[in-house]
Amino acid sequence: MNLPDAIRTARWMVRDTARQSLHTKLFWVMLAVTAVTTVFCLSVDVTGDVKPTVLDYEVPAILPADQLYTIGLNHLKLDKAVPDPLPAEGTPAAATLREKAIARGKEEAKKDGVRLISGEMTLGFGAFKAPVGRDREDSVRMLELWLVAVAADTVGVLLALLWTAGFLPTFLEPQSATVLLAKPAPRWAILFGKYIGVVLFVGLQATVFVGCTWLALGVKTGVWYGGYWLAVPLLVVNFGIFYAVSAFLAVWTRSTVASAFGTLLFWILCWVVNYTHMRMAVQPLEGMTPLSQFFLDAAYWFLPKPLDMGGIFYDAMRAEGFVSKVEELRAVQEAGKFHPELSVLASSVFTVVTLGLAAYEFEMTEY
Question: Which keywords appear in this protein's UniProt record, sorted alphabetically (predicted)?
Fold first, then answer.
């Protein structure tokens, strides 16, 4: 078979994936999740200060208002104007001390020419309210980062792996596969087309999720942060790496359960190896032999690197100051031992090799 026929076969597999997602109702389930999250975003409102305009040569002296108590209390301690120990929370003495500390904090901030920022974020159409020590734009960016980093990048990718784990085992059942294999089509093109179809399906869902939540938050708050869209390619790449493992397990076992939970366990293994390698890079374990270090380095470079991908995602979204970074990742970056380009390249090579092994296994399978 020539290349155009192989491409045509892969294209038909992409269409078959779309049909399968509609047939199994997965398409609508994932849309429902997006719809619920979008409604949540529409329930958000942020009131408070707007970030001031700062010239290039100026240093913005801005202080969240919720830090006034801490600053004022520290100054009172220096003046030895607070009792030791501090009064218990909830007592009249504690309330009096808090008022006194906040007043002192405001006094010190004004003296230093620091601008105070305060605001309030409401969720659930006003059902929940919480003070925010940020301006409106930063408050919305913080919420977007939580949506992407927690709801999409970690939970979302793992759920997508579990939900799509049945696509290939169902497709590889003898009664389904023999119909396709009876036609003059290379098996690698069939498997590759199915893989691309699933990745494109997840990419579409990621685009809809990011687009709807971005639009909802923009309409409600007036904040339109374009960097939020970087989440789409980063999420798709992260999913595609681990779905290659799911594809290999599907071909090897033809079991949805093995494919789903095997991929989940593999993700945990990769995260542990990635974390351990980072920790050893900044804090070597006493007594660790060169052979053990060699095997750890080999495992790190051979396996996918979910923690590295999280670091790349963190930096691309400029999340510093909004969401805490894993301390080991921060230490590795500060030590100059973090190489994102090589990490992505090694993970990509792993994906290609895994898909190649899956194609070979599919080619050798008797139907």
Answer: Membrane, Transmembrane, Transmembrane helix
